[in-house]
Structure formats: structure tokens, C-alpha cells
Amino acid sequence: MNATHTAHPSSAKYAWAGGLRVFAAVMLALAGLFGIFRGIMAIAEDEVFVTTPHYVFQFDLTGWGWVHLGLGIVALLVSFGLFTAAAWARYTGVGIAALVIIANFLSLPYYPWWSVIMIVMSGVIIWALCVDRGEDEGVMGGRQP
């Protein structure tokens, strides 16, 4: 390998990392919107969800609605930060996606299929944000390598 290749990463690497960040931003925005909608549904009308008697993590559906609504709003806001390539947004996005996984696991009996879909979706978001190491900040408006 020559010195110029190792000193300056290829533009394909920048495109790959930038693409992952945009992918994670879009997926987090969708997860946020879905969380907002799910929260509104649970707060407004409890009849949409299945109730499971004797569930260990039983919580009032309105309470779960507020949890999902709050996480959805924060996820949507963090996704805007990801579009600007802010480092804080990448770290916060991983944390929010992890909290979305936990919230959907704990509310699994109320809306099982959707909870599983959101758990998988949040896992993909975490993967995309962890693979993107921020090395492309020069391309997206940050510091130059």
C-alpha cells in the first residue's frame, strides 16, 4: 500500500459510512414516529391493545403510552441530529434505540408483533450507528482527516 492510500481513506469508505449514518437517521426517525403513534394510541384508546393478566411487568396502558410517546419524541429529535452528523446524536441514538428495545420488550404482551418488529428495527439502528465510527466527519461537515 502506498502512503497516500493509508493517509487519506478512500471516498468509497466515506460514502459507506455516510450512507450508514443516513440509514440510521431515517430508521430512527421512523422508529420515533411509530413510537409517537403507538403512544397516542395507548393514551387515547386502550381497546387497541391486548391485555395480559398476571404479566410480571404489568403497567397501565396509558403509562406505557406515555413511555412510548416520550421515547418517540426524543428519537425523532435525535434523528435530526444524525442528519447533521453530530457526534452527540450518534451516541444518544444508540442509547435511545436501546431504551426503545427495553420498552418494547417490557410491553411485548400488549402488542406482540409490533414490539418484535420495533426490537429488530432498533437493533439495526444500533448496528448502523456503531459501525459508523465518525471517520467521515470531513465529508459531512465536520473536521477534515
From TrEMBL:
Q: Which domain of life is it from?
A: Bacteria
Q: Name one Pfam family in it.
A: DUF7144
Which segments cross the bilayer?
Answer: 20-44, 64-83, 88-107, 113-131
Alphabetic keyword roster: Membrane, Transmembrane, Transmembrane helix
Span of domain DUF7144: 22-133
Identify this protein by name.
Answer: DUF7144 domain-containing protein
